[in-house]
User: Fold this.
Amino acid sequence: MSRPQQVQLSHGGGGREMNDFIHNLFFRRFENPLLKAEDAATFTLNGPVAMTTDSFTVEPLFFAGGNIGSLAIAGTINDLAMVAAQPKYLTCSFILEEGFPFSDLERIVDTMAEEIVPTGAQIVCGDTKVVPKGCADKVFINTTGIGEIVLPNVSASQLQPTDVLLVSRDIGRHGACVLAARESLRLESEIESDCAALWPIVNTLLNKGITPRAMRDATRGGLSAVLNEWCQSSNVQMRLDEQAIPVDTAVKGVCELFGFEPYDLANEGTFILAVPAQQAQDALSVLQVFQAQAAIIGEVTQGSPAKPILCSPWGSKRYLDFPVGELLPRIC
Assistant:
């Protein structure tokens, strides 16, 4: 069968075209012993598990540092990693618009196949739907992940005063990257998304004996949303050193241009963790092996109201509030 130029309705019709489409595109790239032409995947799990699901939609589909496919894999892997669960199995479902270029779909699926390899997880089942032109915007992806919990009780409800807060790299890259792409901004240096699967970093932390109280990838709402949610969950305050929070110069420039704060912008490969004070330097050393910009940014404290407090280098203080409104729709 010749390679199609565009996705057609027959590719979701359940007949020969769909069978060829699924086997030649998805099975060939996601091949593993558990991926079969059955209605369900079967496998064995040992001990407690974590499960997550997410849907992905971004405009543009392709951006510096990734595409909707890398978002789909990294997003689901990271949700498992943030509760200290080793990713094991993923499902993957596509909603495709009739007429979507087949070459673009191949690029997306190729990226997904590459992104999942370092995590050790496998895509074990999926689904494809093709809708008439105009009934969807190009492509939407849904993924569900299952992982085996390595360290129990990693949760925002476990924070304690004197715990130290760290960030795994500079913040705001994904939101700034997508915004720059939409507005066709010409920057001195291109902003690449931080999109990446975080399990290899988390696994190294756990293997080094680090026992995080909480971890969270700072996606929509960015650093601000995560820290406010944590304060509410554990009824604590936080003191943040504004100068210690790493922000790339190009991201600062985009924020100044549009009136945003980098703390509110989305990330797709950056996470925040809280650890006991005695583990802070060891945790930082591990993070800096992967990203030199990793930093200690503050500590958990007692106080009311339960909000993070941003402390400037000049001695002023302000609450770092939840982002308000929808800064950037369709970013992940």
Remarks:
- The longest strand covers residues 85-97.
- The chain has two domains: 9-149, 156-319.
- The radius of gyration is 21 Å.
